[in-house]
Amino acid sequence: MTKPLEIAGEAPLEEILYRFPHSHVALELLPDHHDVFRVRLCWLRGKGGRSLFESTAFRPLAEVTLRGQTFPVYLNQHSRKKRDRILLSGRRKTATAARAALRFLVSVEGRDDTLLWNWRVGATAPALAAPRTSELPDSVRLRLPFPPGVPRVVKLGTGDRGWALAVWTKESVVTLVSTTPGSFPEMRENAVELVLKDADLAGSGATLSWETRVTPARTEVEVHQALRRHLADVTTAKQQSPAKQQSPSLYPSFLGELSTKATASLMREEGVTKRGVDRLAYSLKAKRSHAGEGVDTALVACALLARYYLTGDDALRRRARLLGRGICDFQVTQVESPHWGAIWDVQRDDLGYEDIYGGATLSLTATARASVGLHLLHAHFQTELLSRTAIGAAQWLLLRMDKDGLLQGERFHESNSDAPLSAPWAIGEALIPLVETFRRTGNETFQRAALRSVNAIEEALEQATLSPDLGTTEQLASLIEGILLVSREYESERMIALAKEVATLLRTRLLPDGSLGDPLHTHSESQLRATLAGARGALALSRVDKDHRWLLMALRALGAAQKLAGPELEGVSIADLTGLTQLPLALLLAVGALGTSCRADREHVAVVRQWQTFAPEPAAWEYVQVTTADGAPVDYLPLVCPTTLQVLIPVIAPVGTTHLKVVKNNREPMLRNLLTGDLDTRAALVPLGDGKEAMIGVFLADT
Hints:
Layout: E1 6-7, E2 16-19, E3 25-31, E4 37-45, E5 48-54, E6 62-66, E7 69-73, E8 77-82, E9 85-93, E10 101-111, E11 114-123, H1 125-128, E12 139-145, E13 152-157, E14 163-169, E15 172-178, E16 186-187, E17 191-197, E18 206-216, H2 220-237, H3 242-245, H4 254-266, E19 272-274, E20 280-285, E21 288-290, H5 297-311, H6 314-327, E22 346-348, E23 353-354, E24 361-363, H7 364-381, H8 384-399, E25 411-413, H9 427-441, H10 444-462, H11 473-488, H12 493-507, H13 527-542, H14 548-565, H15 574-592, E26 598-601, E27 606-609, E28 612-616, H16 620-623, E29 624-628, E30 635-636, E31 639-640, E32 647-653, E33 659-664, E34 671-673, E35 679-680, E36 683-684, E37 686-687, E38 695-701
Parallel strand pairs: 1-5
Antiparallel strand pairs: 2-3, 3-4, 4-5, 6-7, 6-12, 8-9, 9-10, 10-11, 11-18, 12-17, 13-14, 14-15, 15-18, 16-17, 19-20, 20-21, 21-22, 22-23, 24-25, 26-27, 27-28, 28-31, 29-33, 30-32, 31-32, 32-38, 33-36, 34-35, 34-38, 37-38
Helix pairs in contact: 2-12, 4-15, 5-6, 5-7, 5-15, 6-7, 7-8, 7-9, 8-9, 9-10, 9-11, 11-12, 11-13, 12-13, 13-14, 13-15, 14-15
């Protein structure tokens, strides 16, 4: 019991005030009629406070619909079980019989201005046996009523096609995120509500929970930031370990097997057609060759080239070269065309062009990805045709930008007759080819355009004029990659901070099984594609932020992607197969970059340590073997320095593995542990994050 609290100019009332540790938030219980009490959530400031939510006789905390009738919920018992946990409970009769009743139990746990509300609502057998009076389904409706006034409400979409809410009043914002699958907070009658439809109130009853967080906020930007961070924290906390999922997706050596299977699918002869003597293209439909969205042929060729570095299989290199030359036929080359340099999605056998939907539009995404892939292919093959096509595509992207550095749209009509809608989040796709073109040609026009675009995105986020719900997960991941690629030329802390802010948005799309989804208002291609994009964005962040959470996010996403793709990868699109080929290798390279003085070069599948470059050598798989102590396989990547012949080995091993057995040339070499600094013949691993999902190591084996 504490002294009365002064709130909103009201006269002091006898009350009980429960404060939570390390919080400005308190739960106030006010006596009401018929031995029940009202509940008020307060934000304490000095000797006074302000009401954030409060129930009244006409606005109860909850309503329950049972057998066609709706009953308001009033609470009449309370107790403090722990310093940070409060229990509220009540009982409501539903008929003249004494035992026909609804029972309510509310557990409120709070710390650091964050409260977790767990409701359990059940009905007795006599109450459930009452005759139904209408067709209304049984449901539970939780409610946090506002005090008098009109607050500002902000929504943010989640990966499971739901949303979270932020309620902004005066100098603070209350963010609300549901932790009950399938239920999301919504506004109704000056209150925030969480509804569970078709509730089963028998037995132990129905359970609903949501989390509220109170944060000081004076501007709308702070409101959006608070909502993003709260939702990202909740989605991260909901991540399930492989043991809880009861899924074998993270079995030892799953990364290598996944990449190998995806490569084999890309190398199948079915679906590949000849286009002249030295050109190939994928043909997914009869009499149609594909190069754009859904296939992204240039990126496929880069993935095959990376596998060639790893295995030395010349068939992979030959296929990459033929696909790269084939995509050049899809470029708009008519001088009079307003879209000279763009890349078509599809070419028909009658030499006509179209998009993936059969229309006459050109895709910004297809052109951007083709430009990136062709630049990388030209760096290996040194073919002028590839370079000219890549530069022409980048020039078209440059002309599609407005004065602010944002793109005019995502698709453009061939005749250029209709002005497309603005597509701010698609700028991430264009940033990467612009920077790559600058790096290959030295033309600063492309770099200045990329800088202007980054500044426009940063300004839009600062002024809260850019809706995150309109951007797909793929676009967010590409934006992270693009910003960090621009920053790489200057190592700008400001751009790194911007990329981390976009990564917070990416984390809001996380689902409990490690996969990612898209918000309700976006055109989602597939959950698999969004999941692979999330892994790509997390790996991009791992270059500038050595926090293990990014590698964990990528590992979980790849485990979920493996489950979504199926054991035989049947029905998986060409574009998704490309991600399944590249990302496992990129994850192992990111682990290698954690070593002392190491950085990853994903383009050449290499790790650079000081003056040494460790690159794949196909024969290394024969004379370097890494297993657990009992001989079980693990995921590892042997990289050899051609100057010193030392071997750098990044490893990801299953949970519980403390040491590995490394054999080089039929003997156990002396190993330098680049994570701990130890020098030993035994390879000791360190936990990835909390160690509940994987163990990692980076070792340097001497000759």
